[in-house]
Design goal:
The complex is a heterodimer of chains A (about 90) and B (about 1200). By secondary structure, chain A is an all-alpha fold. Helix content of chain A is about 65%, strand content about 0%. In chain B, a hairpin with an 8-residue loop joins strand 15 and strand 16. Classes of the chains: A mainly alpha (about 90), B mainly beta (about 1200).
C-alpha cells in the first residue's frame, strides 16, 4: 500500500468511525469491542418499552429507575480499560 | 404451516401520555402511547369519565411522544419518536376520526439504536422547533413553521451532536420569544474510556448543556455547559419569558434538575437552588437508598405555575418557585399525595390529573385542592445555606414527610389495564359457559391481581324484580313522540297483558286503553301522541284522549306476527295473509285495500324505522315457514309486491331490519341490514340494497342452541340489535365499526329498550319470571374482567387435574416478607425506637418499603375461580421465594397428586445466585383447598421450571435438567443432564420426550430412555433464542416466544423423531456426533413473526365450541393474540395477497415499514399480519375497491373473509 493511499483510506475510515459510533475495525481491542456491545445492548434495552418493563418486574424497581441505572451504566459498562503494556 | 396472527386484546400498558387540544375543539384530550399503539382519550369534564376516541396500531415501537402547538394556534399536534429512524408529526382529524401523518422526515436507520435519534423529544414551548435525540451523541433540531396557506412546515434537520456523550434527558427551555433553547443532561465517556486507573470514571461529570437554535443564522450552538449533580436523571422545564401584553415575566426560565435525593433549580449564570426530596419516615426504610423522580409535570395557571414530581415510590411532590421577575427567591417542595407510579403525568386545565401507570390500571384523578393551606411540612431552599448549594457534593440532611391517604386528589375514573400479564391459562371452568375463559396473573407488587377474562360486554344491573307469572315478551313505550322517557312497561303473558307505569315507583295501571285480557304481539308509540297494541284478534289504536279505534281480525283467523314503526303496521294472519296499515296525515290508521297471500305460514316480520323526513320505510321483510325470506315493497307505486327472495337453511324465528352505521361498508350513511335469526340458532346478516331491494353480502354466525329472537334497541342514541338465543348478543356500532359481542349476563327470553330518568340508556329484559333493568356501561371492550387482589407479583400458576382450583406463586424482589418485617420492627421496638402507624399503611396504595437486593417476599396461594376468592395462603419464610410449581402424580405413591414448588433462598437476579434452592413437596388436603408440607429437598441452583413426567418430577435447576422421584424424607435425584447453556426456564412433554426451553439457547428436544436411565438431548435449534414461554403444538412441533417479542414455530424432522423413538437405549444418540457445537439434529423454523410484546404464555386451545384449535398467547404489556392456522391453500394465497396490498396502501403512522417491523429480528415467515389486514375496513372506499378488484373479489367478500377468519377462530 502506498503511503498516500494509506493516508486517504485512513481518513475515510476515521471519518466513518467518527460518524458511526460503535463501528469496529481490525485493531479493535477486546475491551473496546465489549464496551461497545454493552453500550449498544443497554441503549437497546432503554429503547424497547417491553424490555424495561420486563427488567423492572424482575428486579422489583420502577421503570424509571431501571432506565436511569441502564443509562448510568453506559458510562463504563465493563469496568476501567486494561492497562496498556509498556513496550 | 401457515398462520394468521390476530390481536384480540391490544397492549394496555401506557409507555407515555401527552395532553393537548388535538381535535382543535376547546376540549383537552390525551394521547397515550401503548408501545405499539396510539390511543386518543377524551376525559368528560362533567362526569370525569374517560372514553376512547380512537386507537390505532402503528406497526412500530413508539419511544417518545410530545405535543406542540404553533405560536398563536389553537390546535395541538403530536410528534412521535420511534424506532423507524424518522420523525413523524401527527394531526388528529376529527372529521374522519383518524390520525393523519403531516410530516415524516427520515434521519437514520430503523431500530432502537444507540446513536439514531428517537429516544428523547423536546419541544420549544412556543412551538417553533423540536429536538429529537438518541441515547448517545446524536441530537437533531427541526424548525417548525407555517407556510402562506397556514400549513405546518418542517425544516431540514440541524445537528447538535456531541461525540462520546451519553444523553440522560433533554427538555425545551421556556425563553419566551427569544431564540429557542434546549437543555440536555449529558455525560462524556471519552476520558473514562482511556483511563485504566478508573479515576476519570469516578470524576466523570454530568453536564447540563444549553443548545441554542439561532433562528437568524439557522444553526445550533452550544450556548452553555456546566457540571451538575452526577446522579441527575431528569430535567423539567421552568416557565420563563415575558408576556406579550405586559413586561411581567411568566417565570424565571431555566430547568429543574431532578437528581437522586435532590431537586436543583438551575439556569444560566444565576445562583442555583437545591432542596432535598422528602422521603417517607418508615422504620424499615433504608436511609442510604437514593430516591429519584420518575415522572414530572409542570402546570401553568393564570400568573402562577407549579410542578408535580413523582418519586419511584409513587409519592407526588408539589414544587413551587418563588420569584421576582427573573430572579428566583426560593425553591419549595412538599408532599402532595400518593398515586400509582406513573410513566407520564398529565394535568388537564379542567382540573384533572391523568396518571398513566407503569403497571396496572390507569387513573384519572380530580383535583380537590392544590395543597396550598395544609400543614404538610414544606422544605425551602432558603432554609439551607447558599440555597442548599453551599457544598454541592454533600447531600442535604434528609427531609421527611408522613404518607397519608389522598387528600388533594380524588379518583374520577379508572381505566383497566392487564399490563403486565405474567402468566395465563385458558380453560372453561365457569358454569353455564360455552366458551373458555382466559385467566391471567397480572400486575406488579401489592397492586397485583388475578383476573378472569370473559369474552363479552359487561352488564350493570340496576333493578331486578319478580313477576307474578312468566311473561312472553316485554315492551316499553313513551306516551307521546317527544317525551324524553318511557311511560309504560307492557308485559305479555300467555293469557293476558299487564301494563306498568314508570314513575317514582313502577306500578300496575289499568286505564291505559290497552286490552289486558289477551296477550300482546306488538306495542308501538304511533304518530304524535297515540299508542298501538297488536293482540291476536286485532289492533287497538289508543288515541291521546283514551278513545280506542279497534281493527278486528276476520272471524276464524288470528294475527300470528306483527311489526310496527312510527307510521306503519304490518300484521300476518293465520291464513298466511299480510295486512298493511299506514298512518295518514290526520293520525288515522288506514288499511291498504289488498291483502297479500304469502302461500306459506308467516313466522316473522320486520320493517325498519321510518327514515328522517320520510313518510314510510319502503321495505318489509317476511320470513315464511317454507324456509324463505321475502322482501316486499311498501312503496305506494308497488305496494305489497315481492321484490326479492332468499332461501334459508332452516325456518326463520325472527327478522330485524335496522339502519346501522358500518364504516367498512359505507363511511357516511347507515347501511340497512336485514338480520335473520333461524330456529337452529344461526344468525344471517344481510345487506339490503336500498335501490333494488336485493339482499347481498350474507354473513352467518352461530349464536346458541335456542331459536333466535331479535330486538331493535337504542344504545347510546344509536340503533343496535339484541339477539337472544342460549346467549344474549349485542350488535352495535362503536367507533364507526360494527361489533357483535355477547353480553355477560343471564339469558333473556325477551328484552327491549328502557329509558327513564335514572337510567336514560338502559335495557329491560325478562328471564323466567324476573324482570331486569340493566345498562351496558363500556361499549367497545371485548373482554370483561373480574379480579382478585394478590399480595405480591404473581409469577406462575397451574391448575389441578381433579378440581377447578388454581395454585399460584407470588414473589417480590427487594421486599421484606411480613414475617421478616415484623421481626425487624420488634427488634427496633426493643431498641427503644418508636415505630409509629406509618407501618400500617395499605401496601396496595403505598407499596411496601424497598429492601436491599436479595430480599424476597413470597407466597403460595390457592384460588377458587368460580367463587372468585382466595381459599388459602401460605407465606414463605426465611427469605425464600417461589419460582416454579407443578402438580405431580408420583407413581411411587400410587399416583397420589402432590404440589411441588421450586423455591430459592437469598436469590440475586443478576448474576443469578442463591444460598440454596429447594423443592418443596406438598400434599393436597381438603380436596385441594389446603396444602401440607411433606418435605423440602435442597438443590444447588434456582429451580426455574418444574413439570410432571411419567409419575415423576422433571426439574430445570439452573443449567441442569433432572428427574426426581419421591422419597420418604426427600425427593430423590434419579438422572441428570447438565448440557444446557444458561438456565432452563420452560418445560413441556409428550410421551418420553421432554422439550427444554433455555433462557438464551432456544428449545432443545430431550428424550428419557428408561432401560439405561439416560436423559439425552438429541435436537436443538440453529438460532439462539431467549425463550420466555413455549408450548408443544404436536409431538414434533413447538411454538415459543422470546424475550424480544418474537413468536416462532419449530419442527423436528419426523424421520429423526422416529429414529430416536426406535432406539431403545439411546446409545445411538449418545454416540452421534454433535452438529454446530450442539445436539446432533436441528429443528427447522416453520413460521416466525415479531408481535412487539414479550410473550409470557402460549396455549393451544379452541376458543369457540367446536371450533378449530388456535395458539393463544398473552404478552407482558397486556396483549392477547391468536395464531390461527389456515385451512386451505386458497385462503393463504388470498390473505397473503391482501396483506401485500395493505402494506402499500396502509403506511405505518410512525413511518416504520410494516414488513421490517414484523421481521424485526428474523424475517417474517409464513405468518400473515391479521392486524394489518383488518385495517382494510377503515380504508377509504376507493382504495378498498381497487384492492378488492386486484383480488378479483368484491369489497363485501374481502370483509366477509376477514370476519370469518376472526369469528370462526376466536369468536371475537
Amino acid at each position: 500500500m502506498s503511503s498516500e493511499l494509506r493516508y486517504t483510506a485512513n481518513t475515510q475510515l476515521e471519518h466513518l468511525h467518527a460518524r458511526y459510533t460503535g463501528t469496529g475495525h481490525a485493531d479493535l481491542s477486546k475491551y473496546d469491542w465489549l464496551t461497545h456491545q454493552h453500550r449498544d445492548t443497554l441503549a437497546s434495552i432503554v429503547g424497547h418499552p417491553t424490555l424495561t418493563s420486563y427488567l423492572a418486574i424482575a428486579d422489583g424497581e420502577a421503570i424509571g429507575r431501571v432506565k436511569f441505572e441502564m443509562t448510568e451504566r453506559m458510562l463504563q459498562p465493563c469496568g476501567p480499560p486494561p492497562r496498556k503494556d509498556e513496550d | 404451516m401457515h398462520l394468521y396472527n390476530l390481536t384480540l386484546q391490544p397492549p394496555t400498558a401506557a409507555t407515555q401520555a401527552v395532553v393537548g387540544n388535538f381535535s382543535g375543539a376547546r376540549q383537552q384530550e390525551i394521547i397515550v402511547s401503548h408501545g405499539t399503539r396510539l390511543e386518543l382519550l377524551r376525559p368528560d369534564v362533567q362526569t370525569g369519565k374517560v372514553s376512547t376516541v380512537i386507537a390505532t396500531d402503528v406497526f412500530g415501537s413508539i419511544r417518545s411522544l410530545a405535543a406542540f402547538r404553533l405560536t398563536g394556534g389553537t390546535k395541538d399536534y403530536a410528534i412521535v419518536g420511534s424506532d423507524s429512524g424518522r420523525i413523524v408529526i401527527l394531526d388528529y382529524d376529527p372529521k374522519t376520526s383518524s390520525f393523519v401523518k403531516l410530516h415524516q422526515e427520515t434521519f437514520g436507520k430503523s431500530g432502537a439504536r444507540r446513536i439514531v435519534p428517537g429516544q428523547y423529544l423536546a419541544t420549544d414551548p412556543k412551538g417553533r422547533s423540536v429536538m429529537i435525540a438518541a441515547m448517545e451523541k446524536a441530537k437533531l433540531v427541526y424548525i417548525l413553521n407555517r407556510d402562506a396557506a397556514a400549513n405546518l412546515t418542517i425544516s431540514s434537520p440541524l445537528e447538535a451532536h456531541k461525540n462520546a456523550a451519553i444523553i440522560h434527558h433533554i427538555v425545551g427551555l421556556d425563553v419566551g420569544f427569544e431564540n429557542p433553547m434546549f437543555a440536555a443532561l449529558e455525560v462524556d465517556y471519552s476520558e473514562s474510556d482511556q483511563d485504566p486507573t478508573g479515576e476519570a470514571f469516578n470524576n466523570a461529570e454530568k453536564m447540563l448543556t444549553y443548545y441554542e437554535l439561532d433562528l437568524g443564522l439557522n444553526h445550533v450552538v452550544r450556548k452553555w455547559s456546566e457540571p451538575t449533580d452526577p446522579r441527575a436523571n431528569l430535567l423539567v422545564q421552568v416557565p420563563g419569558g415575558q408576556l406579550a401584553s405586559s413586561d411581567r415575566y411568566d417565570g424565571p426560565s431555566g430547568v429543574l434538575v431532578c437528581c437522586e435525593d435532590h431537586i436543583i433549580y438551575r439556569h444560566m449564570d444565576v445562583p442555583q437552588h437545591r432542596v432535598p426530596i422528602p422521603r417517607r419516615k418508615h422504620p424499615l426504610e433504608d436511609p442510604n437508598r437514593g430516591l429519584i423522580i420518575v415522572a414530572a409535570v409542570m402546570h401553568k395557571m393564570k400568573g402562577a405555575f407549579f410542578f408535580l414530581l413523582q418519586s419511584e415510590d409513587g409519592d407526588l411532590y408539589k414544587v413551587t418557585i418563588e420569584h421576582e421577575e427573573e430572579e428566583v427567591k426560593a425553591l419549595k417542595i412538599k408532599y402532595f399525595d400518593t398515586v400509582p407510579v406513573a410513566t407520564s403525568l398529565c394535568i388537564l386545565k379542567s382540573g384533572f390529573l391523568f396518571v398513566a401507570s407503569e403497571f396496572g390500571n390507569h387513573f384519572l384523578y380530580q383535583f380537590q385542592k392544590l395543597g396550598d393551606d395544609d400543614d404538610e411540612p414544606e422544605y425551602s431552599s432558603t432554609d439551607y445555606p447558599s440555597f442548599g448549594m453551599a457544598d454541592p457534593r454533600t447531600p442535604l440532611p434528609h427531609a421527611y414527610f408522613r404518607p397519608r391517604p389522598l387528600d388533594n386528589l380524588v379518583v374520577a375514573d379508572e381505566i383497566e389495564s392487564l399490563d403486565p400479564i405474567l402468566d395465563s391459562k385458558v380453560l372453561n371452568v365457569l358454569p353455564n359457559s360455552d366458551a373458555p375463559q382466559i385467566f391471567a396473573a397480572c400486575g406488579r407488587g401489592a397492586r397485583s391481581t388475578f383476573r378472569t377474562l370473559r369474552h363479552g360486554l359487561e352488564v350493570e344491573e340496576s333493578v331486578s324484580s319478580d313477576l307474578p307469572g312468566i311473561p312472553n315478551a316485554v315492551w316499553t313505550t313513551k306516551r307521546r313522540e317527544d317525551d324524553p322517557y318511557d311511560a309504560y312497561i307492557i308485559l305479555s303473558f300467555v293469557n293476558g297483558t299487564l301494563v306498568l307505569s314508570i314513575g317514582e315507583t313502577i306500578e300496575e295501571v289499568q286505564d291505559t286503553g290497552f286490552l289486558s285480557s289477551a296477550p300482546t304481539l306488538a306495542v308501538q308509540q304511533i304518530g304524535a301522541d297515540a299508542l298501538l297494541q297488536v293482540h291476536p284478534h286485532g289492533i287497538r289504536h289508543v288515541l291521546a284522549d283514551r278513545r280506542v279505534n279497534e281493527w278486528r281480525v276476520p272471524e276464524g283467523k288470528s294475527i300470528v306476527a306483527a311489526t310496527t314503526n312510527k307510521r306503519q303496521v304490518v300484521v300476518a294472519l293465520s291464513s298466511a295473509e299480510l295486512v298493511y296499515f299506514e298512518l295518514d296525515l290526520d293520525g288515522q290508521l288506514n288499511e291498504y285495500q289488498d291483502r297479500k297471500a304469502m302461500g306459506s305460514t308467516v313466522l316473522a316480520l320486520s320493517i325498519g324505522e321510518v327514515p328522517e323526513g320520510r313518510q314510510r320505510t319502503p321495505y318489509l321483510a317476511v320470513g315464511c315457514e317454507d324456509q324463505t325470506v321475502r322482501i316486499i315493497s311498501l312503496d305506494p307505486e308497488s305496494t305489497l309486491e315481492t321484490i326479492s327472495l332468499q332461501a334459508l337453511t332452516a325456518p326463520p324465528s325472527a327478522i330485524c331490519i335496522a339502519d346501522m352505521l358500518d364504516a367498512s361498508i359505507n363511511k357516511s350513511q347507515p347501511t340497512m341490514f336485514v338480520n335473520i335469526g333461524l330456529q337452529n340458532g344461526v344468525l344471517l346478516r344481510t345487506v339490503l340494497d336500498p335501490i333494488n331491494g336485493q339482499l347481498t353480502d350474507t354473513r352467518t354466525r352461530f349464536l346458541g342452541t335456542r331459536p333466535i329472537r331479535l330486538i331493535r334497541v337504542q344504545i347510546q342514541r344509536n340503533p343496535a340489535i339484541l339477539a337472544l338465543s342460549s346467549r344474549s348478543w349485542l350488535n352495535y356500532t362503536h367507533q364507526n365499526l360494527m361489533h357483535f359481542t355477547p353480553l355477560i349476563f343471564e339469558n333473556f327470553d325477551y328484552a327491549w329498550s328502557f329509558s327513564a330518568e335514572l337510567s336514560p340508556e338502559g335495557l329491560i329484559g325478562i328471564a323466567g319470571s324476573t324482570l331486569r333493568i340493566f345498562q351496558i356501561p363500556k361499549l367497545g371492550t371485548k373482554l370483561k374482567q373480574d379480579s382478585i387482589p394478590l399480595s405480591y407479583t404473581p409469577r406462575k400458576f397451574i391448575t389441578h387435574p381433579a378440581n377447578h382450583y388454581f395454585y399460584l406463586i407470588e414473589g417480590d424482589h427487594r421486599v421484606m416478607s411480613e414475617e421478616a418485617a415484623k421481626k425487624r420492627l420488634d427488634e427496633l421496638r426493643r431498641q427503644g425506637k418508636t415505630v409509629d402507624e406509618v407501618v400500617s399503611l395499605p401496601p396496595e396504595v403505598f407499596g411496601r418499603p424497598k429492601a436491599p437486593a436479595g430480599t424476597w417476599a413470597s407466597c403460595i396461594r390457592i384460588i377458587d375461580p368460580i367463587e372468585a376468592k382466595t381459599l388459602a395462603l401460605f407465606p414463605l419464610e426465611d427469605n425464600e421465594a417461589a419460582f416454579s410449581l407443578a402438580v405431580v402424580p408420583f407413581a411411587a405413591r400410587g399416583g397420589e397428586l402432590h404440589l411441588v414448588v421450586g423455591t430459592a433462598a437469598d436469590t440475586f437476579i443478576s448474576p443469578r445466585s442463591c444460598s440454596s434452592g429447594y423443592l418443596r413437596t406438598y400434599r393436597f388436603t381438603d380436596d385441594g383447598a389446603g396444602l401440607e408440607l411433606v418435605h423440602k429437598t435442597e438443590t444447588d441452583d434456582v429451580p426455574l421450571a418444574l413439570m410432571a413426567f411419567q409419575g415423576r418430577l422433571v426439574a430445570g435447576v439452573g443449567k441442569a435438567l433432572r428427574i426426581y422421584d419421591i422419597g420418604k424424607k426427600k425427593l430423590l435425584r434419579k438422572v441428570e443432564n447438565k448440557t444446557f447453556a444458561t438456565g432452563i426456564v420452560s418445560l413441556a412433554t409428550q410421551g418420553s420426550r421432554i422439550l427444554v426451553g433455555d433462557m438464551q439457547e432456544s428449545v432443545s428436544f430431550a428424550v428419557y430412555k428408561p432401560p439405561e436411565n439416560r436423559l439425552l438431548v438429541f435436537a436443538d435449534d440453529t438460532q439462539s433464542r431467549w425463550i420466555s414461554s413455549m408450548t408443544m403444538v404436536d409431538y414434533n412441533t413447538v411454538a415459543a416466544g422470546d424475550r424480544f417479542g418474537n413468536i416462532f414455530v419449530n419442527r423436528l424432522d419426523p424421520k429423526v423423531s422416529e429414529q430416536v423413538d426406535d432406539d431403545p437405549t439411546g446409545a445411538g444418540i449418545l454416540h452421534e456426533k454433535g452438529m454446530l457445537m450442539g445436539a446432533p439434529h436441528k429443528t427447522k423454523m416453520l413460521t416466525h413473526i415479531h408481535v412487539g410484546d414479550i410473550v409470557t404464555a402460549i396455549h393451544k386451545v379452541s376458543l369457540v365450541a367446536g371450533g378449530r384449535e388456535v395458539l393463544l398467547y398473552t404478552g407482558l404489556h397486556g396483549t392477547i393474540g391468536v395464531l390461527v392456522p389456515f385451512v386451505s391453500k386458497e385462503d393463504v394465497d388470498f390473505i397473503s395477497t391482501l396483506e401485500q396490498h395493505m402494506r402499500t396502501e396502509q403506511s405505518s403512522l410512525v413511518g416504520r415499514d410494516q414488513l421490517s417491523w414484523r421481521g424485526y429480528y428474523v424475517p417474517v415467515k409464513a405468518i400473515v399480519d391479521g392486524d394489518l389486514c383488518e385495517t382494510y375496513a377503515r380504508l377509504p372506499g376507493s382504495k378498498q375497491s381497487s384492492i378488492a378488484g386486484e383480488l378479483d373479489r368484491t369489497i363485501g367478500e374481502v370483509l366477509k373473509k376477514l370476519e370469518q377468519l376472526r369469528v370462526t377462530s376466536s369468536g371475537f
